[in-house]
From TrEMBL:
PANTHER family per UniProt: GLYCEROL 3-PHOSPHATE OXIDASE (PTHR42720:SF1), GLYCEROL-3-PHOSPHATE DEHYDROGENASE (PTHR42720)
Coiled-coil portions: none
Protein name as annotated: NAD(P)/FAD-dependent oxidoreductase
Domain FAD dependent oxidoreductase: 3-351
Pfam families from the UniProt entry: DAO, Fer2_BFD
Domain BFD-like [2Fe-2S]-binding: start-end pairs: 395-447
Length: 473
């Protein structure tokens, strides 16, 4: 039996799992998809927000500044990419200037440091290709960029290294409590028993809550579309660039990624689909073109959308049920949820410690080593690696210089990739200009061999998405 079951393997569930793995506890993470980071955690802006837009006396406002500071240590321990590139909120008229001054004041009241108002010349020195007419900007030096799914994978691998079990393809259909024990029933007929349950199910958090709680929640999905540009476009932007925030959210941003690309988005649509539309893409391109001059639209290599969970209150819901302190909701985690994930994990750990004896492990392994990135190595190190393991001498993805050795490593790590998207997120294979047209089939063949399954059983992402339409004979 488990001490704790965490439902959901996004950035929140995996961060909580990693934090709780510091203690002598039996922990299982269950996820209905086949990999971590299959929901909101795979498709968002990847911004570590400074937090100046958040309201006082909210969970968002109380957690964001503390959590932002945790990223320096975490990115070093877990070896996920983070760049403190700073953010600019651009003001184009006197009304905008008043708004950024208020944002600065609000941020300082929340304990956020490194905020300053820049004049036109200072803005241009920071980012030379800002559109004409900018009067001032709020500069937030603590703002950073991360790769959100890379961070989620790092948290999951660290948790697994410290004894946390992961169970994928595990769709929860009901939960019952008898005495101090919860029984979690899965769609496949299995059940899992646990003393504590943490609901970190993202967009489906309300459904999990409603299985146990008389107080019903409604979480609505809000879709945001993005365009991803190539690395030539990415080289032209240093800071994360915002216009003054809109009522619907922080608005369309323009930012480099940790991998060197450029990303613009998101818009805001009240739907749960992950489709992209011509109208939506036109909208974000138009808004991004008001931020930087001559947006290189011909360098777009793909578009995608993500769905974030919105509550009626607009704040996170992190609380135990009124009649069951062993069931904790961690739901409605929209922006700045990625930023707040480390602090949320500590917050939840503190909640559990009030009702469960938690003994720290003397052998907790804080360090997680990232995968080898062949493309980032020196010529000398490449030659040495190939000599030690010839699989690193076979380039499979020519756009991103990803080797067979990296793909094999991605499959056999814990938790490892069992889908094409899992390989893509761990290695960057299929993320270049051809978007997998040249390497998808060879990758499927490697996965078929390493997983010992027929190639027709290799899925793109979910259990019902075959990557290739034939069976090898």
């Amino acid at each position: 039996m488990n001490d704790i079951v965490i439902i959901g393997a996004g950035i929140i569930g995996c961060s909580i799992a990693r934090e709780l793995s510091k203690y002598q506890l039996d922990i299982t993470v269950i996820e209905k998809n086949l990999d971590v980071a299959e929901g909101t955690s795979k498709a968002n802006s990847g911004i570590v927000h400074a937090g100046f837009t958040e309201k006082k006396n909210t969970l968002k406002g109380s957690l964001v500044a503390k959590s932002n500071k945790m990223f320096d240590i975490l990115s070093d321990e877990l070896e996920f990419s983070m760049v403190r590139n700073g953010a600019l909120v651009l003001a184009y008229d006197d009304n905008d200037v008043r708004k950024i001054e208020q944002l600065k004041k609000n941020g300082e009241e929340l304990g956020i440091t490194g905020l300053s108002i820049l004049d036109t010349e200072a803005v241009k020195r920071k980012q030379g290709n800002i559109t004409k007419g900018v009067k001032a900007a709020l500069y937030a030096e603590t703002s950073a960029i991360v790769n959100p799914y890379d961070m989620t994978i790092a948290m999951a691998e660290s948790a697994a290294l410290n004894g946390v079990n992961f169970k994928f393809g595990a769709n929860v259909v009901n939960i019952e409590k008898n005495g101090d024990i919860h029984t979690i029933y899965l769609e496949n007929g299995e059940d899992i028993k646990s003393r504590f349950v943490i609901n970190a199910a993202g967009l489906f958090g309300a459904e999990i809550n409603n299985m146990m709680n008389e107080e019903k929640y409604n979480i609505r999905g809000v879709k945001g579309e993005y365009c991803l540009f190539d690395k030539i476009a990415g080289a032209a932007v240093k800071n994360t660039l915002f216009r003054v925030p809109e009522e619907k959210g922080k608005g369309v941003l323009v930012t480099p990624t940790t991998d060197g690309n450029l990303i613009v988005g998101p818009n805001s649509q009240k739907e749960q689909s992950v489709s992209t539309t011509r109208e939506g893409i036109d909208e974000i391109i138009e808004k991004a073109s008001k931020v930087i001059d001559e947006l290189p639209v011909k360098r777009v290599i793909t578009s995608f959308s993500g769905v974030r969970a919105k509550t009626e209150s607009g704040d996170f819901i992190i609380e135990a049920l009124k009649d069951n302190e062993q069931f904790i909701n961690v739901i409605g985690i929209d922006s700045p949820g990625l930023t707040c994930a480390p602090a949320i994990a500590e917050y939840v750990s503190d909640m559990i410690s009030k009702n469960l004896i938690m003994i720290k492990k003397h052998n907790f392994i804080s360090k997680r080593h990232k995968m080898v990135r062949f493309a980032e190595l020196s010529v000398e190190d490449k030659n040495k690696l190939i000599k030690d393991n010839p699989e690193y001498g076979r380039i499979v993805c020519k756009c991103e210089l990803v080797t067979e050795g990296e793909i094999i490593d991605a499959i056999h790590r814990v938790p490892g990739a069992v889908t094409l998207d899992g390989v893509k997120r761990r290695t960057r294979a299929m993320m270049g200009g051809c978007q997998g047209m040249g390497c998808m089939l060879p990758i499927c063949k490697i996965m078929s061999r390493e997983l010992n399954v027929d190639i027709s059983e290799i899925n793109k992402n979910s259990a019902y998405s075959p990557a290739v339409g034939f069976r090898e004979v």
